[in-house]
Amino acid sequence: MAISLLIVGHANTGKTSLIRTLMRDQQFGAIDNRSGTTRHVERIDLIIDKKPILHLIDTPGFEDSIGLWQTRKYEAQAHESGHNWLSYAANAPELTLHFEQEQKILKQLSNCDIILYVIDLRYGPLGKYLDEIDILTCANKPIVPILNFCHVQPNYAREWQQCLAERQLHAHVRFDTVAFFFSDERKLYQTLQSLMPDHYDQLNNLIKRREFDAEQRLKKAQHALMHMLVNSATYQLPCRSAKPQPSDIQQFEDHIRSLEQHFVAHCLDIYTFQTSDVVLRGLAINGSQWQQDIFDADTLKNWGIQTTTVAATGAAIGASIDILSAGLTLGTATTLGALIGASWQTGQSFKSSIINKLRNRAILATGSATLITLLYRGAELINHLHHRGHATQQAFTIEDAKPPTKEEIARYSQLFKKLAQRTEWNQEDTSQELPNHSLIKQLQEEIIRLNDRD
Ligand SMILES: Nc1nc2c(ncn2[C@@H]2O[C@H](COP(=O)(O)OP(=O)(O)OP(=O)(O)O)[C@@H](O)[C@H]2O)c(=O)[nH]1
Ligand SMILES: [Mg+2]
């Protein structure tokens, strides 16, 4: 049997938002900055393995709790027990004119297991809210106050906690449906476990599943970022002449931008958000002329050259290329592998760049400053989406990310310089695995470090 949670509270405190966030569903109900958005009771089931675990029941907000509570105090029902008064007030035709919305709430009170009372912490515990709690107490059901908007500062958390404690409501849960943290959601489920011990295992499964899903989403998004960075770092655009033309630069920049856009779309999909939730702005691209780094020990190794005297071999290679560039035909380029002693099989990917060098054509590649910006923007987007509640209405703008430290710049530049040599890793199909290589592991560690830091 699922647990029925009745979500109640004053108008505009974030009741519908809470349900959207718990369901990871932006489409549930309607939410708005104006009060009185929800006009009807609506139920949605949280299902795990085809079994409903929670029934979440959304209700309209209280609008005039003071007036309703007064009808009990000053009229004929004063002598009735709270519970009897509720049954009466839920259906009394003479109350419908003034308390139509409240009656919709009262009718649900008998059908639920637990009441979640949503509080907007931007407001202190005013009389109208306290009357709402008094009305709900009449149902003799457990009430869990949800301290919503908890990340908005300043707020009235302390005043509310004191006021709730005076009413024996100690088991409150802090929440923010916009700045979402799974630890808050876990606390909610743990509170439900203590109130309904018969459902302990069921709720435990829910917590574990939620944790697992969150971990998987994060891993997938980080993987997408690695792909985007590898593809950006290894992308080369051969130009038609020694000097890149504006059309070459445009084509190059469009490609890098499209890689970032594709990554953003993929992340939105992973986190079930929509295109309108993120705005991409101002990626400054510094295309640099690509240079085959023939003196780099890793590059030599990749070419199949095992040498202990890297500098000497490097000099020999440099000389060979210079000789070739000096006037030999393009066909000669294919003999380059033999000339430098590399296994041409492994050096295949460099063929086009060497041929372009021989043809005296520029090759555009992404500069490390751009790659660092892409890394930072990507990590920031993942971090944002990981904590974005499904009730958030404002789009997240990706602009310039915060600047890295000098040490980080040096570390990232070194990493991207090495990655840029691996042109054979450039792949359009991002569903393919990335190579099992120490450079990829290093990139992954940097991304994880950036996500952990925020
Ligand atoms: N910053 C912040 N905004 C929130 C939070 N919860 C809700 N909101 C915003 O508050 C507004 C009202 O949210 P709703 O979910 O419509 O509130 P409601 O209680 O269902 O409103 P009614 O149906 O009118 O009673 C929306 O603009 C939400 O985006 C929160 O925890 N933090
Ligand atoms: Mg609502």
From TrEMBL:
One Gene Ontology term from the biological process aspect of the record: tRNA wobble uridine modification
Protein name, as recorded: DUF3482 domain-containing protein
Residue span, G domain: 6-148
Short name of one Pfam family: DUF3482
Stretch forming the signal peptide: none
Gene3D superfamilies found in the cross-reference section: P-loop containing nucleotide triphosphate hydrolases
Entry-linked InterPro entries: DUF3482, GTP-bd, P-loop_NTPase
Listed GO CC annotations: cytosol
CDD domains named among the record's database cross-references: Ras_like_GTPase
SUPFAM superfamilies: P-loop containing nucleoside triphosphate hydrolases
Molecular function terms from GO: GTP binding
